[in-house]
Amino acid sequence: MSVFGEYKIDGNQLVAKETGIAIPLTPGFARDALSIASFIWLVNGVRASRVLKRRGPRARISFFPKKPRSFYAIWPVCHLADVKITDDHAAADLHFYFEDREFLTAPRRAPTAKPAFNVGCFDIRKSVVARVFEETFGYALAIDPRNWRGPAVEKSEGNGRHDGHVIDCPIAAPKRDHVYQRLVENTFDGRDHIDIRTPIVGGKIPFVYLKRRKPALRFSNENYRVDLVDADALLSPDEQRKISAFAAAMHLDFGGIDVLRDRGDGRIYIVDANKTDMGPPSALKSQDKLKAMRGLADAFSAMVDGAVAKAGG
Questions:
Q1: 3-29, pLDDT tens digit by residue?
Q2: What residue ranges do the domains of the chain occupy?
Q3: Considering Cα of 299, then 40, then 251, then 235, what sign does the dihedral take?
Q4: Which CATH class name applies to 126-274?
Q5: 237-250 and 126-137 helices cross at what angle (nearest 10)?
Q6: Please, what is the Cα angle at 189 between 185 and 195, to 5 degrees?
Q7: How many CB atoms lie within 10 A of CB 206?
Q8: Which 8-state DSSP code applies to residue 271?
Q9: Model-level pTM?
């Protein structure tokens, strides 16, 4: 059975055809789907009001090799930023590399010589994220499980698996296609685990999502609460500069970065980067969802205007 063309139902799971990522069909998933649908309806309402006012687009953008569905963050952002999505690459002012894959052996070529976003972001495997993080921040997340002593995290190399778990090191035989990382004690109070989901748009951090999880679900994507927070409240200016430098090194013009702060040493660690971000989180309050997308749209508008001006000048 096909769902949205890119997903299928297999038993009690929703499976992405391209990546094989499986999402359990639970009551929580149903609530999330309803929340996403309601948000899309809201964005369409805002979009319709702008059409009635006969506001022309600030630019036209084409996606390659695929066009995002409405549940990806870039879709509402384009509509709220007055950036028209077109299938005609030749008529577009800009291109956007969009493909829900974490690894290619080389970047895809943009359809034309016009500016293209995310075009160099073709390898976001966790080992690459850890390497670029260490090069940018000067300290390591990755560990060698054969020499490390104490607890560590073992997880799949690919994105979206949410299969991380704690192991005791050293171990004799690391698993193939897995990564091993230091255990970041990302709690404020020793109880709830905190993920600082950090949107990045043209090197800017418009805000962060503060995502809270219970200990049993610390490696999952199930948040019992999400708050929209000013970036300056959680990240120092130096940390924000380094996150932007990390994004630049990853060629991530638009996406989301998962940041954890260790309770012990106080430092932040980047554990994941996503170039096909879904959003906003379903646990975020409805009024904050639109506020977040407007913030992303403002940052995206600035990035688009800058790219179009540079290309024309």
A1: 445 556 656 655 555 545 545 555 555
A2: 2-123+292-312, 126-274
A3: positive
A4: alpha beta
A5: 130
A6: 50
A7: 20
A8: E
A9: 0.85
